[in-house]
Amino acid sequence: MSESTDQAHIGVVGLAVMGSNLARNFARNGNTVAVYNRSPERTRALIQDHGEEGNFIPSESIEDFVASLERPRKAIIMVQAGAATDAVIEQLADAMDDGDIIIDGGNALYTDTIRREKEMAQRNRHFVGAGISGGEEGALNGPSIMPGGPAESWKTLGPILESIAAVVDGVPCVTHIGPDGAGHFVKMVHNGIEYADMQVIGEAYQLLRYGAGMEPAEIAAVFQEWNSGDLDSYLIEITAEVLGTTDPDTGKPLVDVILDAAGQKGTGRWTAISGLDFGIPITAIAEAVFARALSSSADQRSAAQEGDLPAGTAVDFEALGISREEFIEDVRRALYASKLIAYSQGFDLIKAGSDEHNWNVDPRDLATIWRGGCIIRAKFLDRIREAYDTNPQLPALILDPYFKHELADLIDPWRRVVIAATQLGLPAPVFASSLSYYDSLRASRLPAALVQGQRDFFGAHTFKRVDKEGTYHIEWSADRSITKMD
Ligand code: NBP
């Protein structure tokens, strides 16, 4: 074991999978790291198994841990989100002094981060909510880090976080996102986009598997090929790996022995709720969350299957009259188009959150720091950065000239795939709802006019007119005359 007698540059509290990997990453990059875990066994295991990787200062009490940190003290909390995080913040704040920095690297709800930052500021402690993406592998080898909190803390924290972050084209995947909850908000939306990205890949798989009748190994090869083009990304890469894997027990494709029920309790759900709170139609993310919820509705699903719900006249693939190769390419383009919508909506939500809280989040920063380390890392993010470089006030990502040009090539295949999915009787909720979102955005008239008429009819909610200023109400139950209300 290599233990430094000097004080630590940074400390990590919570040494489960994420915290211990993050501590090792700090140590491997030349930082002396103080480590502490509530149960001392984890601290001892870390030092025993990995102590030789760098300079660690282990402690078995929070007071010793804090005393081992150089000033201003910097401690990252990597414990379970919620009450555990609050408990550790209190312990650290009690043991620390003015100007020390407490960083929450867990997946906290951004409103909790805003509250905690306020509470800590009253005690002269700096509090930084930092989103950390990349799972356990990223924590060890280079995550994408999204710190919020006071700009002043970033000056102290920046270099040390840059020393462990993923690096793309010489640029570390970390930057100060904005004040208080900005980092955790952005991390939450990142995860929401991740849900949508995974779901569109799932829908593409479903269509190739049960529409075109391809085997998982064949589809793995298709995904591998897609990974060299516009869709080049970590998620496409690992999809090919998963689909290409065989279950050692049964010899069947692994994907066929995994229960088709996905969890959705965390950040994806929070993103969907935020979309509703801010009135931002993040349909792709919400559909992805609901698709997971539906997959886990075991009782309803089995009752629906046993209940022989009518399928209609589902068409078989041959009857659609398109070649398998054409269909595969159409599915690739539908996936690309739907993914573009998911990102466009995610960036809309970030803008809404940033405007509401005066965070001044720069979308170019996100497109830069998400290029490496995190789960949604992709070539595509370079294009997003270029789009916001060209026009930082872009009203929607899909209105960027490059993406508009791409959409011209994607739109017909996208429509064909949604039609095919419907005709085949295969669910494609994000492909279909993203296309509806796209068509809604470009429609010159929406049925909202009729909805306003209905609302005025039953609730006197009033309406505005296209041809005159003012607010109007119709005397529906009398002579249907129109009254100008203001
Ligand atoms: P867990 O979320 O499983 O939390 C386990 C850690 O929390 C242990 O160190 C445990 O200490 C500690 N802890 C608990 Br539980 N209650 C505590 C309390 N009251 N006081 C002090 N410590 C307490 O760990 P993880 O999976 O490493 O994740 C850490 C954070 O990182 C979470 O917020 C998670 O959402 C986030 N995150 C995880 C991933 C991932 O891929 N796993 C990715 C990105 C972010 P003990 O050993 O004494 O029980």
TrEMBL record:
<dbReference type="InterPro" id="IPR008927">
    <property type="entry name" value="6-PGluconate_DH-like_C_sf"/>
</dbReference>
<keyword id="KW-0570">Pentose shunt</keyword>
<keyword id="KW-0311">Gluconate utilization</keyword>
<dbReference type="InterPro" id="IPR006183">
    <property type="entry name" value="Pgluconate_DH"/>
</dbReference>
<dbReference type="InterPro" id="IPR013328">
    <property type="entry name" value="6PGD_dom2"/>
</dbReference>
<dbReference type="Pfam" id="PF03446">
    <property type="entry name" value="NAD_binding_2"/>
</dbReference>
<comment type="function">
    <text>Catalyzes the oxidative decarboxylation of 6-phosphogluconate to ribulose 5-phosphate and CO(2), with concomitant reduction of NADP to NADPH.</text>
</comment>
<protein>
    <recommendedName>
        <fullName>6-phosphogluconate dehydrogenase, decarboxylating</fullName>
        <ecNumber>1.1.1.44</ecNumber>
    </recommendedName>
</protein>
<dbReference type="GO" id="GO:0004616">
    <property type="term" value="F:phosphogluconate dehydrogenase (decarboxylating) activity"/>
</dbReference>
<dbReference type="InterPro" id="IPR006184">
    <property type="entry name" value="6PGdom_BS"/>
</dbReference>
<keyword id="KW-0521">NADP</keyword>
<comment type="subunit">
    <text>Homodimer.</text>
</comment>
<comment type="similarity">
    <text>Belongs to the 6-phosphogluconate dehydrogenase family.</text>
</comment>
<dbReference type="Pfam" id="PF00393">
    <property type="entry name" value="6PGD"/>
</dbReference>
<feature type="domain" description="6-phosphogluconate dehydrogenase C-terminal">
    <location>
        <begin position="183"/>
        <end position="477"/>
    </location>
</feature>
<keyword id="KW-0560">Oxidoreductase</keyword>
<dbReference type="InterPro" id="IPR036291">
    <property type="entry name" value="NAD(P)-bd_dom_sf"/>
</dbReference>
<dbReference type="InterPro" id="IPR006115">
    <property type="entry name" value="6PGDH_NADP-bd"/>
</dbReference>
<comment type="pathway">
    <text>Carbohydrate degradation; pentose phosphate pathway; D-ribulose 5-phosphate from D-glucose 6-phosphate (oxidative stage): step 3/3.</text>
</comment>
<dbReference type="InterPro" id="IPR006114">
    <property type="entry name" value="6PGDH_C"/>
</dbReference>
<dbReference type="InterPro" id="IPR006113">
    <property type="entry name" value="6PGDH_Gnd/GntZ"/>
</dbReference>
